[in-house]
Amino acid sequence: MEHKLPTLSYELGGLEPYITKSTLEFHYGKHHQAYVTNLNNLIKGTAFEEASLEDIVKHSEGGIFNNGAQVYNHTFYFEAFKANGGGEPKGKLLEAIQLAFESFENFKAEFTKAGATLFGSGWVWLVVDAAGKLSIMQKKNAGNPLRDGYKPILTMDVWEHAYYLDTQNARPKYIENFWQLIDWDLIEKRFEVSRPKIG
């Protein structure tokens, strides 16, 4: 199976001013593409040659995991954006956020803090457990909550290449911008398919 760089649902300049065209040209066009290329080269002749990306994330190790997880993580990250995004979720997702964090504002503050305090490079995730409860996870490097039995519904990349061209070393400003781009309709759909069905 050949893995491919996914097509974005927006133009490279479509997320400005929050994420610039220059950042997407490097972050999506070069970094994400490099992970795809590396993964395709690494899986040749291995047990993962025909595996799905999710299976690679769950079961591989070493270079195959690092590149496979970064392909998954970046795809998951980029597809959650839209121009004129932001605001708040609705429906069952908002109810679940309020149940887990008391309010959307508390959730946003906790997710923001998790992103600001993750030392070095990595990812912050909003995940669903087997009981349908939401929680926030910090993961170093290429870490992914699928390996821990959780289903992710939102992620934020806090590797420096996600924001250095736009905000230099000001990660808090990047996180502030991140909230202006979230496609909550898509996140709600992810939640609906991830939460356990009752009855």
From TrEMBL:
Q: Known EC number(s)?
A: 1.15.1.1
Superkingdom of the source? Bacteria
- What are the record keywords, sorted? Metal-binding, Oxidoreductase
Specify the enzyme's EC class, one word.
Answer: oxidoreductase
Query: Which residue ranges does the record assign to the Manganese/iron superoxide dismutase N-terminal domain?
Result: 2-81
Catalysed reactions, as listed in the record: 2 superoxide + 2 H(+) = H2O2 + O2
The family line of this record is: Belongs to the iron/manganese superoxide dismutase family.
Q: What is the protein's given name?
A: Superoxide dismutase
Q: Which organism is it from?
A: Marinifilum caeruleilacunae
Tell me the organism's taxonomic lineage: Bacteria, Pseudomonadati, Bacteroidota, Bacteroidia, Marinilabiliales
